[in-house]
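Many introductory courses stop at the sequence. We go one step further.
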Amino acid sequence: MNKEKSIKVGTKIIYYITLALSTLVGFWHFFVPHLYNWYDYLPMQYKTLIVGIDYTNLCFSLLLFGNSLVLIILAKSAFTLNFETLVFYTFLTAVWIFRACLSTFIEPWPLEPIPAVAIGQLVGAVVQALLMVFVTTKLWKTRARVKYER
């Protein structure tokens, strides 16, 4: 049986959707400090704090954007159930699960100043995480089944 044929079209579509959304969130995060005037909330005398926040945000943005983009490029590898590619997708899934759990249980996003934005981010993170868990599970189960059939 051809391994790529064993991955259903719906799973492939969700794979691409989740990675496109993840890439967009990573790209968007490059501009978040300026879009939401982060620096207005920080005392300017704490330059070290501002640089640390910038480094953290820029590194997160680059990693999220870069990993998602690389996984889009490696889609064929994922659909042929390559172990390393599945590990990277699984790691990105874990990042989104952590984000969803963080905003749901650990430290929910404050509803001020705009509740709709906070709720939208919560729902978006949870949906993204669930879709990625679905794809991750399908890929790993298919890999195990194909390996067993050999």
